[in-house]
Amino acid sequence: MGATMAEKIIAAHCGSDVVRPGEYVWCNVDGTAILGYYPVRQRLKELGVQRLFNPDRIYVVEDHLAPPSTVAVANAVADTRKLVREYGLDNFFEYGRHGVLHELFPHRGYVSPGDLIVSMDSHSTSYGCFNVASTPINEELVYVLVTGRIWLRVPQTIRFNISGKLPGPESFVVGKDVILRIAGEYGTDVALYKAAEFHGPAVPDLSMASRFSMANMGVEIGAKFAIFPCDDKTLEYLDGKMKRPPRAVAPDPDAKYEAVYSLDVTDMPPYAAKPHDPGNSVPITEVEADSVKIDQAFLGSCTNGRMEDFRMAARILRGHKVHPDVRLIATPASQDIWRQCMDEGLWDIFSEAGAMVTHSTCGACSGMHMGLLGDGEVCVSSGNRNFQGRMGSPKAFVYLANPATVAASAVTGYITDPRRFL
Amino acid sequence: MPLIVRGRVWKFDDNISTDLMMPGFARTQGMSERELARYCMYSNRPGWSDQVKEGDIIVAGRNWGCGSSRPAPRMFKVLAVGGVIADSISRLFFRNAVNIGFPVLICPGVSASVEEGEEVEVNFETGEVRNLIRGTVLQGEAIPADSPPYQILKAGGLEPLLRQTVARMNGSEAEKR
After folding, report:
1. What is the distance between the terminal CA atoms of chain B, rounded to a whole angstrom?
2. Domain chopping of chain A, boundaries
């Protein structure tokens, strides 16, 4: 019997030829990451840890609260800087050279196809877009930092066969819409405890940014891993960035899938998820029909804060003004992207339109600083979660959508089908 | 640690996110875990953190603890909740719970078989859920004996293994010198 991509990567990291779903194995990981606002150093000191498993494979950044909004966070980040020095971690990215970890780290050599990665932050499923088995951890971070090892239960694998041709960024329909549609049609627990694979004729056409959004929100459908095949686009994107040679995996023709879901994305509309769950997603036309007035539009996050996203938004904003009752907050996923947007003149367009451009941070999407919502306020967000209370007040309402929908809605003042701006 | 717990039930719906358990805005203020736990369910069920009593048990629907990887199980440990039983539990919540020795059990159908305020007895080791009011018994998905999560949960969390590991590694470092 053949193996799925997740089974092949796990087998390669636990010293077995073959692994089967349900089996428990101990694996060596290729990398792990520390979020700078967690009190990790304190734990290492309490335990008397003298060295970490492999300083080159441990990446560190503070992105959620960049830069600190409270003394408590400032102290926590200061302690992380000490950790970085004491344990000799070179891959620490100071404010100004930082980014949201999932966007930043692949540009700094964190991943290669075929890797097994376990990182802090739930959106660590993101690296699956690079043919990596990557999954989030939290409480066992210190154990992984010390040993470089983790136990895993080999998951069942499910497969999404995506056929047809996605309209794409030029038509304002992107990967974000596909993953919102999947969450709506199959449920936010369709991939619970499972590895999800994305295959089919539509996949080679998907931009890396679109694949990224889908793997990123893999965790929003419960997935342990959300893995794409490796192709020329993957290798081109990672070219010159990787620190290890790629060991790409593909599923065997007789790989066993627990379930196969087929969807055709030809002529698909943009999707939006209504409050308070990513699974409440419907075609944008249905939300537009409700005439939902907005107070805030948020364009950013590890899901949708990339060049493709800001370019789409800029096409809509050019020659328009943000609606007088709306604030549009644009937060790039890394400082590199901030710089590129500036070089391409996109910030001129955003600024002319009356948008507020910020530095890179998780910011409003994390609900921790830089754009929290008040009671009764409505936000359309290109982020990944619209749970009650996620972005501030429990009495606020968040709609998730693609970046073009966010920009279009910022202009009109209500949630709008961006295809009106084509 | 005792893996048989008897307690009064609090019911929660499907898709209760870790944002509800540990709101983001409260996490930037340098609060202790005890202070933070006051905000547990503050959005969806204000006042609950004052009402819940030591040994109470949570029975939830599908996808309990979805979303962020934040260490939300600590909130329930601080509130002295006896454990969580749910139709399904997010991978991150499950793993974080096991790693701090907080009992969790996946038991499909449990939310339909227990009402709030009823008393249940749960054996988190065998997966048996006994409704002491109705006399009904449900079988949850026991964690396989001798699997790493079973051993970690039995040991009260990852801490003992972590301490042993660090001591062993520091010992072998000392020998090298």
Report:
1. 39
2. 5-153, 157-239+254-264, 271-421
ipTM of model: 0.97
The pTM for the full model equals 0.98
The answer to whether domain A5-153 and domain A271-421 are alike in fold is yes
* For testing contact with chain A, the best of B27, B87, B89, B158 (most A CBs within 10 A): B27
- pLDDT at residue B66, rounded to an integer: 98
Give per-residue pLDDT as tens, A286-311.
999 999 999 999 999 999 999 999 99
**Which residue of chain B has the CA closest to A155?**
B91
> Under 8 Å CB-to-CB from A304, ≥6 apart: which residues?
A176, A213, A382, A383, A402, A403
Look at B19 and A48 and tell me if their CB atoms are within 8 Å. Answer: no
Q: List all residues of chain A from 89 to 118 with a beta carbon under 8 Å from chain B.
A: none
Q: What's the pLDDT tens digit per position in A134-181?
A: 999 999 999 999 999 999 999 999 999 999 999 999 999 999 999 999
Say yes or no for a CB contact (<8 Å) between A188 and B15.
Answer: yes
Taken in order of first residue, the domains within chain B and their CATH numbers are: 4-176 (3.20.19.10)
Q: Are A181 and A202 in contact (CB under 8 A)?
A: no
**How far apart are the C-alpha atoms of A94 and B74, rounded to whole Å?**
30
What CATH number is given for A271-421 in this structure? 3.30.499.10
Hey, is A282 helix, strand or coil? strand
The SS3 of residue A235 is helix
Nearest to A150 by CA among A13, A268, A295: A13
